[in-house]
UniProtKB/TrEMBL annotation:
<dbReference type="InterPro" id="IPR005196">
    <property type="entry name" value="Glyco_hydro_65_N"/>
</dbReference>
<dbReference type="Pfam" id="PF03632">
    <property type="entry name" value="Glyco_hydro_65m"/>
</dbReference>
<dbReference type="InterPro" id="IPR011013">
    <property type="entry name" value="Gal_mutarotase_sf_dom"/>
</dbReference>
<feature type="domain" description="Glycoside hydrolase family 65 central catalytic">
    <location>
        <begin position="323"/>
        <end position="719"/>
    </location>
</feature>
<feature type="binding site">
    <location>
        <begin position="620"/>
        <end position="621"/>
    </location>
    <ligand>
        <name>substrate</name>
    </ligand>
</feature>
<dbReference type="GO" id="GO:0030246">
    <property type="term" value="F:carbohydrate binding"/>
</dbReference>
<dbReference type="InterPro" id="IPR012341">
    <property type="entry name" value="6hp_glycosidase-like_sf"/>
</dbReference>
<dbReference type="Pfam" id="PF03633">
    <property type="entry name" value="Glyco_hydro_65C"/>
</dbReference>
<keyword id="KW-0808">Transferase</keyword>
<feature type="domain" description="Glycoside hydrolase family 65 C-terminal">
    <location>
        <begin position="730"/>
        <end position="774"/>
    </location>
</feature>
<feature type="binding site">
    <location>
        <begin position="360"/>
        <end position="361"/>
    </location>
    <ligand>
        <name>substrate</name>
    </ligand>
</feature>
<dbReference type="InterPro" id="IPR008928">
    <property type="entry name" value="6-hairpin_glycosidase_sf"/>
</dbReference>
<dbReference type="InterPro" id="IPR005194">
    <property type="entry name" value="Glyco_hydro_65_C"/>
</dbReference>
<feature type="domain" description="Glycoside hydrolase family 65 N-terminal">
    <location>
        <begin position="7"/>
        <end position="263"/>
    </location>
</feature>
<dbReference type="GO" id="GO:0005975">
    <property type="term" value="P:carbohydrate metabolic process"/>
</dbReference>
<dbReference type="InterPro" id="IPR005195">
    <property type="entry name" value="Glyco_hydro_65_M"/>
</dbReference>
<protein>
    <submittedName>
        <fullName>Trehalose 6-phosphate phosphorylase</fullName>
        <ecNumber>2.4.1.216</ecNumber>
    </submittedName>
</protein>
Length: 802
C-alpha cells in the first residue's frame, strides 16, 4: 500500500462504522463521514455530516430526572445518490451482491473513492466509480462524481440524487435513550431546472443550515436533458432521473453541494447564500483541481516523512498512519476554521462521541499546529477568550475567584459534561463526576503561554491571552487553601487526568485531595501569571490591573502559593498521584487479564462487578506522568526547587516505571504520553508505545470507539512525538531548540516547521541532523542545537553529528 493511501479491498459490514470515521472528509468548517452514498443510518452505516461547532441542546428524562445534553448535530445527509434498474432493487451494499469492492482514501489529495461492482437479483451488474471531496479551499463546497457502467444489461437506469434532512443523532449506541431529534425543516424545494434546496434549523440553538445540490448527468461528456421525478417529502428533497443505458455504456453523475449557515459571515441569509453561490460554483473537475491545490499547499508545510529500517511494509505502516493523523488534524481544524469561533474537539467533527465537545485534549493538539499554522492556534485560543465571562461566572457560582473553565465546553462555554453516563457493561446510569477535572484550566493557560513562546505574538498575549491567564491564576489561588500543619497550600476535592479516580473509597462525596499534576500545574500557572505581569508593555499591565482589580496583596499571595504548594510523595520519591494514593489496594492484574480479554476499561468492569476503580492503584491514563510530558527535567527541577522539594533526575524513570505498570490504557492519550516520556530513556519501548498510539484509531484498539469519532488528541499527540520528542524541536524563551534522538528502528525523519515567520527544514538520521533555513523575514536565524546557539542564513544548511 503506498504511503499516501488508506485502502480497503473487501467490504466488511462489521467494520463499516470504523472505516466511515477514518475516511471522513472535512475542511475545518464541516465534515462528512466516509459512508457509502447509497446507504442511510442504521446499525451498520452512519453517514453523518457535522458542522464545526454545530451544537444543539435537548432534554431527556432519565431515571426520573430531566437531563440536558448539548450535542454536535448530525446535519442533513447530502451524500444520497442511489441507482437501480427500473423495477429492480436499489444497488447498495445491503441490497445487492458485491462482486468487487474498493474504498480508498487518498490522503495526499483529500479524495475518497469507492469502486464497487454491484449485482442485483436479476444478475444485472453495475460498476460504480465514485470520487468525493469536501473542498479544502472553499469551505462551503462538497462534490462527488459517480460514473456508472452497465456491465451486462441494456435498460432504464433510475438515479436518485437527494438531500436527506430527516436524519437524527443516532451515532452512539450508549446515547440511544436520549432525545435525538435536533432538526426541524424550515424550507425545501425540488423543482425542475433548479438545484435541490433544503433549509433546516436546530430546535434549541436555532442554527439554520441551508444546503443546495446541483446534479448533472452526462454521457460521453454531453449533458443529458432529463425530466426527473421530483421529491419533497418532510425534509427529504430529491430528484429521480431515468436514463437509458446500454450494455458496457457509462453515464456520469455529478453532484455539487453548497452549505451555508446562519453563523456565516459576509452573507445576508444562509438560504440565499447557498442558492446564489451554487450558481457560480463550477463543476466537479475544476473543483477537484482547486481542492488538490489546497491540499498540495497544506502538505508542503505539514508532511512528515519517516523511513524505518524494516524492509517489509505492512498495510498500516507508520508513515501512512502518521499522514492519516495529520490529515484528520488538518480536516478538523484548518484555515477554514479561522473566524468560526470554534474550539478543537476531542473526537474531531467525525462522529457523535463526546458530543463534539472541547476538552483539555487541546494540550496534545496545539504543539504541531502551532509550529505549522500558528494562525489556527490563535483562532482556537480566541474560542476560550470569548468564553472568559462564562468561566468567571462559573468560578463565582462555585465560590471561587477568577475564571473556571469547564471540563467539557461547547457553544457557550458553560459546563457541558453530562451528569450521568451509561455503563454498557452493567446497563446502569452512573453519576459522571469528570467535571471535577479543574486541571483543564491549567491546560488552557499552558496553551496560551506555549503559543506566545512559539510565535512571540505579543499583540495576542497583551490583548487576549494575558487576561485569560491572569484570571485562571486567580482561580488557582482561590481554590488553594492553606494548611497550617504543613505550612503549605493545598488543592482539595478535585480530580486529576486519571478518570478512574473521582473519590476516596467509601467517601460520600466526589473529589480527591492534592492531585500532584493539578498542584504542580497550578504552581506553574501562578508563576507564569507573575511573569506575564513583568513582560507585557507597562501601559497594558496598568490597564489589566485596573480592569481586573489585581492588587499587590493578590500577587503576593500568588507568589506565596507558587512557593508553598503541597506535593505528596510515597515509597521513596514516588510522586503520589493524590493524597493517600498509597493506601489503595493493588489490583490483581492477572485475575482480570485472565477473566476479560480487554481490561482497558477497568472502570466499567469493576462497576459491573459491584466494585470501583477508586479502591485500587490503577490509572486510566497518564496523570503524574503528564508532568514529564509537559516539562523537561530541568524545568521540573526548577519548579520543585521553587517549592522546596527535592528532585533528583532518577525520580523520573522510577515514577515512569511505577505508573506505567498501573495503567490500563483506558484512554488513547496514555500511549502518547508513555511513548514520549520514554523517548530518551528507553527508545525501544518508546517506539512500541508510539506504534500503539498510531494503531489506536486505524485498528480501533479500544474496540468500537473509533466508529463514534476519531481520537484527535492521540492522533495529534502521536505526530507531536515525532516533532518534539524524536526530532527534539522545542520552543523555550525566544529560541527554537533542537535535540534529536531517533528510536533505533528509525533510519530517517524529515519535516518542516514555521517559527516566528521563518521556515526551517529538518532531516535527522541516527548519525546526523541537517537543518536548513528555507526562508525568513530576517537575514539570519538563531537557534539552539543541544546546549549551544547557532546562526543560519537563508538558503543555508547546517549539519550536526549526533
Ligand atoms: C480521557 C480524557 C479526554 C477525553 C476526551 C477521556 O477518555 O480520559 O482525558 O480528555 O477522553 O478525549
Amino acid at each position: 500500500m503506498p504511503a499516501w493511501n488508506l485502502t480497503y479491498n473487501t467490504y466488511k459490514p462489521q467494520e463499516e462504522g470504523l472505516r466511515e470515521a477514518l475516511c471522513t472528509l472535512g475542511n475545518g468548517y464541516f465534515a462528512t463521514r466516509g459512508a457509502s452514498a447509497q446507504v442511510s443510518a442504521g446499525d451498520i452505516h452512519y453517514p453523518g455530516t457535522y458542522l464545526a461547532g454545530g451544537y444543539n441542546r435537548l432534554k431527556t428524562k432519565i431515571a426520573d430526572r430531566d437531563i440536558e445534553n448539548e450535542d454536535l448535530v448530525n446535519m442533513p445527509n447530502w451524500l444520497c445518490l442511489k441507482f437501480r434498474f427500473t423495477g429492480g432493487q436499489w444497488f447498495s451494499p445491503e441490497n445487492a451482491a458485491i462482486r468487487s469492492y474498493c474504498r480508498e482514501l487518498d490522503i495526499q489529495n483529500g479524495i475518497l473513492t469507492h469502486i464497487v461492482v454491484f449485482e442485483d437479483e436479476q444478475g444485472r451488474r453495475i460498476r460504480m466509480e465514485e470520487q468525493r471531496i469536501v473542498h479544502m479551499g472553499d469551505r462551503h463546497t462538497a462534490a462527488m462524481q459517480v460514473s456508472l457502467t452497465s456491465e451486462n444489461e441494456t435498460g432504464a437506469l433510475e438515479v436518485e440524487s437527494a438531500i436527506d434532512g430527516t436524519v437524527q443523532n443516532r451515532g452512539v449506541k450508549r446515547y440511544g435513550e436520549l432525545n435525538s431529534r435536533h432538526l426541524e425543516v424550515l424550507e425545501s424545494e425540488s423543482v425542475q431546472d433548479r438545484p435541490l434546496y433544503l433549509k433546516v434549523q436546530t430546535v434549541q440553538s436555532e442554527l439554520r443550515v441551508a444546503m443546495t445540490a446541483r446534479t448533472r448527468i452526462t454521457r460521453k461528456g454531453k449533458a443529458l436533458e432529463l425530466a426527473p421525478k421530483l421529491m419533497d417529502d418532510d425534509g427529504y428533497v430529491g430528484k429521480r432521473y431515468t436514463v437509458d443505458i446500454k450494455k458496457k455504456e457509462t453515464i456520469v453523475v455529478e453532484k455539487v453541494v453548497l452549505v451555508h449557515t446562519s453563523r456565516d459571515i459576509a452573507i445576508s441569509e444562509c438560504g440565499l447564500a447557498a442558492r446564489a453561490r451554487i450558481q457560480r460554483t463550477p463543476g466537479f473537475e475544476p473543483l477537484l483541481k482547486t481542492h488538490k491545490l489546497a491540499w498540495k499547499q497544506l502538505w508542503r508545510r505539514s508532511d512528515i516523512t519517516l523511513t524505518d529500517r524494516r524492509k517489509k511494509r505492512s498495510d498500516h505502516h507508520p508513515e501512512m498512519v502518521v499522514r492519516l493523523h495529520i490529515f484528520h488534524l488538518l480536516q478538523t481544524t484548518s484555515k477554514q476554521t479561522i473566524n468560526l469561533d470554534v474550539g478543537v474537539p476531542a473526537r474531531g467533527w467525525h462522529g457523535e462521541a463526546y458530543r463534539g465537545h472541547i476538552f483539555w485534549d487541546e494540550l496534545y493538539i496545539y504543539p504541531f499546529i502551532t509550529l505549522q499554522h500558528p494562525e489556527i492556534t490563535r483562532s482556537l485560543l480566541l474560542y476560550r477568550y470569548r468564553r472568559l465571562d462564562t468561566a468567571r461566572a462559573a468560578a463565582r457560582a462555585a465560590g471561587y475567584k477568577g475564571a473556571m473553565f469547564p471540563w467539557q465546553s461547547g457553544s457557550s462555554g458553560r459546563e457541558e459534561t453530562q451528569t450521568v453516563h451509561l455503563n454498557p457493561k452493567s446497563g446502569r446510569w452512573i453519576p459522571d463526576n469528570s467535571h471535577f477535572q479543574k486541571h483543564v484550566n491549567a491546560a488552557i493557560a499552558f496553551n496560551i503561554w506555549k503559543y506566545f513562546e512559539s510565535t512571540g505574538d505579543m499583540q495576542f498575549m497583551s490583548e487576549y491571552g494575558a487576561e485569560v491567564l491572569l484570571e485562571i491564576a486567580r482561580f488557582w489561588a482561590s481554590i488553594s487553601t492553606f494548611n497550617k500543619d504543613f505550612d503549605r497550600y493545598e488543592i482539595l476535592k478535585v480530580m486529576g487526568p486519571d478518570e478512574y479516580h473521582d473519590a476516596y473509597p467509601d467517601a460520600d462525596e466526589p473529589g480527591l485531595d492534592n492531585n500532584a499534576y493539578t498542584n504542580v500545574m497550578a504552581t506553574w500557572v501562578l508563576t507564569q501569571a507573575l511573569n506575564v505581569l513583568e513582560i507585557l508593555p507597562e501601559d497594558r499591565i496598568e490597564e489589566l490591573c485596573e480592569t481586573l482589580h489585581i492588587t499587590e496583596s493578590e500577587t503576593d499571595l500568588w507568589w506565596d502559593i507558587s512557593r508553598k504548594m503541597r506535593i505528596i510523595f510515597h515509597d521513596d520519591n514516588i510522586i503520589s498521584q493524590f493524597e493517600h494514593y498509597d493506601r489503595l489496594k493493588e489490583l490483581d492484574w492477572e485475575k482480570y487479564r485472565e477473566k476479560y480479554t480487554n481490561i482497558q476499561r477497568m472502570d466499567r468492569i469493576l462497576e459491573a462487578e459491584g466494585d470501583s476503580p477508586n479502591n485500587y492503584k490503577i490509572t486510566k491514563q497518564a496523570d503524574v506522568l503528564m508532568l514529564f510530558y509537559l516539562f523537561s527535567a530541568p524545568e521540573l527541577k526548577t519548579l520543585f526547587k521553587q517549592l522546596n522539594y527535592p528532585f533528583e533526575y532518577e525520580t523520573i524513570p522510577k515514577n515512569i516505571d511505577y505508573y506505567v505498570h498501573r495503567t490500563t490504557y483506558g484512554s488513547s492519550l496514555s500511549w502518547v504520553v508513555h511513548s514520549w516520556v520514554m523517548a530518551r530513556s528507553d527508545r525501544k519501548r518508546s517506539w512500541k508505545f508510539f506504534l500503539k498510539a498510531l494503531q489506536s484509531d486505524i485498528n480501533d484498539i479500544q474496540g468500537g470507539t473509533t466508529r463514534e469519532g476519531i481520537h484527535l488528541g492521540a492522533m495529534a499527540g502521536s505526530v507531536n512525538i515525532l516533532q518534539e520528542a524524536y526530532m527534539g524541536i522545542k520552543t523555550r524563551g525566544n529560541i527554537l531548540w533542537v535535540n534529536p534522538e531517533l528510536p533505533e528502528v528509525l533510519e530517517k525523519l524529515e519535516m518542516q516547521v514555521r517559527y516566528r515567520g521563518s521556515t526551517l527544514a529538518f532531516e535527522t538520521t541516527q548519525e546526523m541532523c541537517k537543518i536548513t533555513l528555507l526562508c525568513s523575514p530576517e537575514n539570519t536565524f538563531k537557534f539552539g542545537f543541544k546546549e549551544n546557539l547557532y546562526e543560519l542564513k537563508v538558503g543555508n544548511t547546517r549539519k550536526f553529528h549526533i
